[in-house]
Design a protein that fits this description.
215 residues; mainly alpha; MetI-like fold; 81% helix; elongated; transmembrane; membrane
Length: 215
């Protein structure tokens, strides 16, 4: 069976796996973004606090993703839970780092001006600092998403959702007629989804970042 014939025959399953892959990555990115920005907001004013936040989240990436999922299985079982925990933790570093860099890069004179007109600290953060720090934060989100698209494939080891199941099935049946087709379909599917995600972020940036800041 050719690769094209395989895609036609298995398109329903492939579309289901692709949807589950996108859903898992998107949901984990939402959680990671919220956590990462909060950590950045809490720690960016302190030199040691920012360093601790970046070092801690960077340490997570030194753990092989397969090992991380394997260690979580006895604690939370198979399926969605280890997938969500692993992807969320692995997505933190770029967001935390870029949140801290972006917030520290806000022009102090703008913050002083906001203080001068009576804005509270919370108002300055929400209306001045975070909007100006949004471009680097969005860049961190893009980087995290690209990372998680690949790492999510490993979730199939723990019976997680996504295109990783197609890849693992192909690897487990190497030598059979469709083994290479399965691995190739899963891999290309992840690459295509990653490119679509990145294009969506480019569009989001154009819609949410004023032209003057982009320049």
């Amino acid at each position: 069976m050719s690769f094209w014939e395989y895609l036609i025959t298995r398109h329903q399953q492939l579309l289901t796996d692709a949807f589950q892959h996108v859903s898992a990555v998107f949901q984990c990115m939402v959680i990671a973004t919220l956590l990462g920005v909060v950590i950045g907001v809490v720690s960016y004013r302190s030199g040691w606090g920012g360093s601790l936040a970046i070092t801690s989240t960077a340490t997570i990436l030194t753990i092989p993703s397969l090992a991380a999922i394997g260690l979580l299985i006895p604690l939370v079982g198979l399926g969605v839970a280890p997938t969500v925990i692993t992807l969320t933790l692995y997505g933190l570093l770029p967001i935390v780092r870029n949140s801290i860099v972006g917030l520290r890069g806000v022009d102090p004179s703008l913050v002083d001006a906001a203080t001068g007109i009576g804005m509270s600290r919370t108002a300055r953060l929400l209306r001045v600092e975070l909007p100006l720090a949004w471009p680097p934060i969005l860049t961190g989100i893009r980087v995290s998403t690209q990372m998680l698209m690949g790492i999510a494939a490993i979730a199939a080891y723990a019976s997680g959702p996504g295109l990783g199941n197609e890849i693992f099935r192909g690897i487990a049946s190497l030598g059979s007629a469709n083994a290479i087709n399965q691995v190739l379909a899963g891999t290309l599917g992840i690459v295509i989804l990653a490119l679509l995600f990145d294009a969506a972020y480019v569009l989001l940036g154009r819609l949410t970042i004023p032209r003057g800041i982009r320049a």
